[in-house]
Design goal:
CATH class: Alpha Beta
CATH topology: Rossmann fold
Largest sheet: 5 strands, parallel
Radius of gyration: 14 Å
Structural class: alpha/beta
CATH superfamily: Dehydroquinase, class II
Strand content: 15-25%
Number of strands: 5
Shape: globular
Mean pLDDT: 95
Low-confidence stretches: none
Order of helices and strands: EHHEHEHEEH
Strand order of the largest sheet: 2-1-3-4-5
CATH architecture: 3-Layer(aba) Sandwich
Amino acid sequence: MKILVINGPNLNMLGKRNKDIYGGKTLKDIEAALQAEATKLMAEIIFFQSNHEGQIIDFIQSNAKRAKGIIINAGALTHYSYALRDALVDANLAVIEVHLSNIYAREDWRHTSVIAPIAKGQLCGFGWRGYISALRILVGELRGEN
């Protein structure tokens, strides 16, 4: 079972920016932890990160047919990208939204997600562990586990 793990703008800077908010792990560290968990779950992960909205949409459109689900941290695109939301809807896959920080405990503009209404769920505020939880939940959902 293939899962797309998509990270949006500025997530390539993890480990270097705002460690008090985002933690000290790099995106590569998170990907390694996810890969180890995916191996245990007998799942395959395809990672992608871009600072460009169109590239993320192109990736979804090019890879959705060979995947079963999507874990996405869209970064700031979360709050306004209806084009990204539409691409996720059109992919017709189970989606889990992840954020390292608690977006509801931050600036008001971060409280709205255009992705949350079309996602199976949202995990925020648990740092890198949110990705691991999202993977476990998504794989369980796809396997029909209660």
